[in-house]
Amino acid sequence: MTSDLYREQILDHYKNPHNFGELDDADVAQEGDNPLCGDVITLYLKLDDGKLSRATFRGRGCAISQASASMLTDMIVGKPIDELRHFPTQAVLDELGVPISPARMKCATLAVNTLRVALNGGAGGDDDD
Ligand code: FES
After folding, report:
1. 99: which of 49, 89, 109, 122 lies 20 to 30 Å off by Cα?
2. 61-90 tens-digit pLDDT
3. With bands split at pLDDT 50, 70 and 90, how would you rate the model's confidence at 129?
4. How far apart are alpha carbons 89 and 71 in whole angstroms?
């Protein structure tokens, strides 16, 4: 895909986010924020037999932060929890598909960092943002 198509895909996820909304029977609800701008997302995770059976999110923020949360929820459903504890940041960056400047890196990694906090209780995971 060209970078224009990636940009369009980001805007599409931003305008029509996948898996958006609260999950009533979530096993884990984890809020994460970007202190630089005050943007916030909450991830809702439903676990089933060692796997993630559903993932939704709510939030407000810039296109990159909300699109990456939308993409992340698509990417992680059905995966083993053990694997998701170390879900690579790079997978989200690859999915976004556009160069992310250092200033926007916190936007792009907000959702995946929140996932790690949700599954590791605030510790562990790779801290590569
Ligand atoms: Fe706030 Fe991107 S500007 S998360």
Report:
1. 122
2. 999 999 999 999 999 999 999 999 999 999
3. very low
4. 12
CA of 81 to the centre of ligand 1 (A): 27
The structure tokens listed for 67 are 């699109």
Could you tell me the distance, in angstroms and rounded to a whole number, from the CA of residue 50 to the centre of ligand 1?
32
Q: Is the CB of 61 under 6 A from ligand 1?
A: yes
Rounded to two decimals, the pTM is 0.91
C-beta 105 within 6 A of ligand 1? no
User: Could you report the per-residue pLDDT of 24-68, keeping only the tens digit for each?
Assistant: 999 999 999 999 999 999 999 999 999 999 999 999 999 999 999
Measuring CA to CA, which residue among 27, 25, 24, 60 is closest to residue 42?
A: 60
- Please report, for the chain, the start and end positions of each structural domain, with discontinuous segments joined by +: 2-119
Distance 101 CA to ligand 1 centre (A): 12
In this structure, the number of other CB atoms found within 10 A of the CB of residue 67 comes to 27
Could you name the CATH architecture of 2-119? Alpha-Beta Complex (3.90)
